[in-house]
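Aim 2 progress update. The chain analyzed this quarter is reproduced below.
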Amino acid sequence: MIHDETRRKLREMNLEELIQYVDIHLPDSQTLVLSFEERFQLMVDYLYQEKYNHKITRLLKASRLRLPKAELNDIHFLDRGIDKQTIVELGTCQFMDARMNIVFHGFTGSGKTYLACALGKQSCKRQYRTRYIRIPDLLMEFDEATLVPKGPQKLLKKYAAYSLLILDEWLLEEMADDEQHFLFELIERRHDLSSTIFCTQFRTEDWHRRLGGGVHADAIMDRIIHNAVFIETGSLNMREFFSARKY
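Predicted structure tokens:
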């Protein structure tokens, strides 16, 4: 058994998992036949896995994914026109190393959010700080931040820091000039430094008009589309499809 003082020191070093390992495995007679090096390796492997699991749990919780149960393996590809190999490659998160963006385009119910959240979950599993947010909610945060000294700057710093940012309902509603400027600053700060996923109902030829048609529209589009993977989510309504399968 571990002495109480030793337990206290381990907890002070944030090594509660090590205490758990010893409590579970020390009474196990099968481990007694192992060498010290073998037992030490098992202990380190257990500690590493537990620390990793806890970190992933924290990252997933902080990501606020709209669909936290979304998984790449559960994506339905048949009759959607989505290239499975492309999604599998994106699931490796190598696009994040290249600081590339992803644009999921399709009508309501075509599965844009699910695809984005599945990739967001992969990002968390690879220990990247990830965040999902709807554009209407982000702009609401911006409006509230304008009431606080240096609020918009703090908000920009917060969302610019994520390795992967998922912006859902992109261009769903028209924006005021100050909101366009805020989005430009956010995208500018993330440009060539991190990756962003956009989920939208609108094709890129409609973006400029919905962004106000001015210099901010030009600048925002320039920083998004020239280093992005565009994926059409197809004509199949996934909500109706999965609802029908239940019956």
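The chain has a mean pLDDT of 90. The beta strands are 101-105, 130-134, 164-168, 195-200, 228-232. These observations will guide the mutagenesis experiments scheduled for the next reporting period.
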